[in-house]
Design a protein that fits this description.
The chain is of the alpha/beta class. Helix content is 39%, strand content 18%. The chain is built from twelve helices and eight strands. The protein has an eight-stranded mixed sheet, sandwiched between helices. Helix 4 crosses helix 5. The termini are far apart.
Length: 295
């Protein structure tokens, strides 16, 4: 009983902190064991064009997960999400967490360009850090899931850096992503996404079939990003014959979903286990071969 009470206390503190975007992540970082070696590199000239690479001990040719954090396209820092890298790298994956420019420094499409460059850097360099450049998965939470989804579904972003998502991306993992969020009601978001065809900012509009496999997760208690975004994107992918798995966890909200990746918050939802299961299911075969069979 005492152990359970203590666990609930840690869970409460961590979730509250994540919701406030402050020291909660630091708490999760502190209680997450990380045996991976950590390297830092720059993928571009801006101070926010940096990324951290987490390599599990003794791993070679491991599947790679590039994780884009959220922050309403306005804030966030890769150091806040060491607990995500610790959890996933402990399962044998090389994890890359990029920073990217946010508003007001940039608007759409500045952070998209940064995301594409980070993926291109990963493709070109991850083998030096124990990763397999032929098995790269894109993952994101909240605004980061939007970025990862756009990189996966709208081929022109990766095309601009010499990549093709249908060839170079093994799968997409989205947590609480805004994929179909028009009309915009927030004035800041209107500014961030203004200046072009607003429909081209929505990942759902780029589903055409033969996309990489997708794992879409959301919490039914999410009051920040409507879980309907996940429902609609999953339905669109399914209608096009794509490989998609949708999971809606009944008792978690927006912050709890990413927090549950950490082992200490696993009782909230088996998020890390479901990510692990998805990656293992789709990492054994090179994406080029898989696309050829599906066509």
């Amino acid at each position: 009983m005492r152990k359970m009470s203590a666990l609930r206390g840690i869970m409460g503190l961590a979730v509250a902190g994540l919701a406030a975007s402050c020291s909660p992540a630091a708490l999760l970082n502190a209680v997450s064991n990380n045996d991976a070696s950590v390297s830092t590199a720059a993928y571009g000239p801006d101070p926010r064009n940096g990324l951290d690479i987490y390599t599990p001990p003794g791993r070679r040719n491991a599947p790679v997960i590039v994780f884009f954090y959220g922050g309403n396209w306005q804030n966030g820092d890769k150091a806040m999400y060491r607990f995500v890298a610790a959890s996933l790298s402990s399962r044998g994956y090389v994890v890359v967490i990029p920073d990217y420019r946010v508003y007001p420094q940039v608007r759409f499409a500045g952070f998209m360009q940064d995301g594409a460059k980070a993926v291109a850097w990963t493709k070109q360099n991850v083998a030096r850090f124990g990763g397999d450049p032929g098995r790269i998965f894109l993952m994101g939470h909240s605004a980061g899931a939007h970025i990862a989804a756009m990189l996966t579904l709208d081929g022109h972003w990766l095309g601009d850096v010499g990549l093709n998502p249908r060839r170079d991306i093994a799968g997409f993992i989205g947590l609480a992503g805004p994929y179909d969020f028009l009309p915009l009601r927030d004035d800041t978001l209107k500014t961030i996404f203004a200046g072009g065809d607003i429909q081209r900012t929505q990942p759902i509009n780029f589903v055409s079939g033969h996309e990489p496999p997708s794992l879409l997760m959301a919490g039914r208690q999410d009051k920040t990003v409507d879980p309907g975004n996940t429902d609609r994107l999953a339905a669109r992918l399914r209608a096009k014959g794509d490989d998609v798995k949708e999971i809606l966890y009944p008792r978690v909200g927006h912050a709890e979903l990413i927090g549950a990746v950490a082992p200490v918050l696993k009782p909230l939802a088996p998020v890390a286990n479901d990510i692990d299961r998805f990656v293992r299911a789709h990492a054994g075969e090179h994406p080029v071969a898989r696309r050829a069979v599906r066509r």
